[in-house]
Automatic annotation (TrEMBL):
It catalyses: 3',5'-cyclic UMP + H2O = UMP + H(+); 3',5'-cyclic CMP + H2O = CMP + H(+). Counteracts the endogenous Pycsar antiviral defense system. Phosphodiesterase that enables metal-dependent hydrolysis of host cyclic nucleotide Pycsar defense signals such as cCMP and cUMP. Pfam families: Lactamase_B_2. This is MBL fold metallo-hydrolase. Residues 13-218 form the Metallo-beta-lactamase domain. It comes from the Bacteria. SUPFAM superfamilies: Metallo-hydrolase/oxidoreductase (SSF56281). It comes from Paenibacillus oceani. InterPro entries: Metallo-B-lactamas, RibonucZ/Hydroxyglut_hydro, WalJ/YycJ-like.
Amino acid sequence: MTLRYTVLASGSTGNSLLVDHEGTKVLVDAGLSAKKIEQLMEERGVRGSELDAILITHEHSDHIKGVGALARKHDLPVYANEKTWEALNKHLGALAEEKIKVMETGSVVEFGGLQVESYPISHDAAEPVGYCFHDGDTKLSLATDLGYVSSKVKEKIADSDAIILESNHDIEMLRMGKYPWNIKRRILGDTGHLSNEAAGEALCDILTGKTETVYLAHLSRDHNLMDLAKLTVNNILEERGIQADERKVELKDTYFDRATKWDRLGPDS
């Protein structure tokens, strides 16, 4: 079996991930307009009508903007935990009751042969989650919009074949930036966003040798640069000797305005 995935968009202006497992297609978040999400999917050869479900990480607008329209247009079930539903119901518009799926945090839902597990993260939302996608021993993990990487999060995303990990800001760029201090403090806090430095430090504890690829995601357009994020994370990994041993990983880009190429996991990749 092969699992493939593409980060359709990542950043403060909108986030979405498409996972395809042997024809079963799951969308995680739709933080751009439904029209734009469909355009990005079509550029990767997928129509909105092929989707099987939408999963939501949390209720912030850069993750749910197109969810309601996509769900209504293609009659899709939408999965989120109860507190997230309470926070986002008014933002999605009317959905058929049978399409509103409560997925308890920490539970596993199966789509075809793909198992999707949610886990709690630290962010200033009602009950934010990350997701792990399992197909036997193959594992893809999504961990963005988190102020810090707790020991429990590290346990959840360890032994992944690939990780999509937040690397939101460079600390000095943020401190010197134009945002008012209360917003800077929110971003830097434990329920804010992960810095380049924090992403690198977390990876040092997570990487076991199985992980081959890490996508750096949810970059700030005002307080980060992809080359800087990759350099910072890579330098930390090199300082710990990781990029010189069996735990070496490839760091890959994500984009706010275009999708990444399909990436594949599994024996056929």
